[in-house]
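Margin note from the TA: students keep mixing up input and output lines. Inputs are the sequences; the output is the structure of the whole complex. Example:
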Amino acid sequence: QKEVEQDPGPLSVPEGAIVSLNCTYSNSAFQYFMWYRQYSRKGPELLMYTYSSGNKEDGRFTAQVDKSSKYISLFIRDSQPSDSATYLCAMSRPSGNTPLVFGKGTRLSVIA
Amino acid sequence: EPEVTQTPSHQVTQMGQEVILRCVPISNHLYFYWYRQILGQKVEFLVSFYNNEISEKSEIFDDQFSVERPDGSNFTLKIRSTKLEDSAMYFCASSGQTDYGYTFGSGTRLTVV
């Protein structure tokens, strides 16, 4: 089983839709969970990070972590064409600043 | 907003040649990293660097690779003898003492021909 699995998509939604992006993982040692946005030929840009289980909200974005199921989600409300990008989940062990393990990324297109 | 700067943005090199990729991390950050992304594949960890030494490295980071912080601002990745399979985007990143959200640079696209 791969350490982090993420459906690569592509995912196409109409403007204003709620988008749900997900990752599963196998390593129970992961404690930090992040979502990055990556535009074509650019570096990953941090959107949100959470520690352990629970929810975190920031504007139109909500991150959820369910450690019991080894499942993390990112929800985007009122999606905009400018949200069109590849979304990468990433996670790491708890010992501060340890390497990130990335999912393959989900390509999202929001159609106006 | 502070950013991580990488140069060059694109480098083409012949197989067997040495390349040096350069990065200027965010000035008050303490941890520095190199990641790479082969086209269509995951972002993969190469190496982390703290307190002027390598703190962790992956299996990819073999003897062909080395990192250096030659002065107070630059952080470099050297590939001694490039192979075709080294063609990828190379991302530098940095983070602070308690910041688990790395800041990535825009990357250097390395093409080995």
